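Bit of a strange request maybe. I'm writing a small parser for structure token strings and I need a real example to test against, not something I typed by hand. Could someone generate the tokens for this chain?
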Amino acid sequence: MVKYAAQRILLMLMTLLIITAMCFVLVRMLPPVELPLNDPHTQVIEARREAQGYNKPYIVQFGIFLKNVFTKWDWGVSDKLYLGQDVADIFMQKLPATMVVNLYSIILSIPIGIALGIFAALKKNTWIDHTISTLTMLCISVPSFVYAFLIQYFLSFKLGWFPFLMKAGTDYFSWSMFYSMVPVILSLSFGVIAGFTRTTRAELTEVLTSEFMLLARTKGLTRAQATVRHALKNCMVVILPSIFGEFIGILGGALIIEKIFAVPGVGNLYINSINARDYPMFMMLTVFYTTISLAASIVVDISYGFIDPRIRMGSKK
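Reply from user aminoacidic:
Good idea to test on real output. This should exercise your parser:
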């Protein structure tokens, strides 16, 4: 497992370096953003561009970029959105909003999705199972931003239960802030609940028909006891790693959702940096999303071995 983890980490770093290099070169090939005249930040940005070797070959520019990041954690300054401000500081200010919204969504999605999956598996081939399975496929097929528009229309506009946009501020754990987050949380949760329901139902249905479950019943365990002690324990081998994957999936889906509800997070910042052609901001956020995606895949693979000792990634046997 240690050898496998080391190989995966090295492969992840190599992949991250290649993606970063590709994005860096493509961004530098684009025409630079025109800076406003008679602005004190313009001279700062021009000086930073000169120090980063904008007039030198791309390989030299990329070397300077990596050196600044690894030695000084310097990602540059914003060209457009936050003129002259440090990109890393802006990113750290925006990150808590994204993390809190995703945390609430995961907390809501996991128990509901697993409970529905268990209920559907126990009621296999009944109208309950068919109804849950149909709704699950429907929810998975619909993009999260469609739910956002529907929630805004019905819950915010027609019924007036919630605000259209998320409340501004940094007190993320207050009741007023949570109340304004509810539409965002619901928009992110529908697809995730459906994903957990489908995974749990499929795994539990297969386990319930296995031979060791029949043996457990013949030893005197009730159906509920056999399900809780044996079936669910085996299902967790697949369900627990999927939690990591779904969390990263929520981060990716939050790009558009944050824009719709004006969430002051990194997803909204990413969209704005693309529209405004703020290249330093775009580069840092691209590296951020690439890193967490690659890291999540490693965590999911390695977690199988810790959850079930019988599984050993990278084994030749």
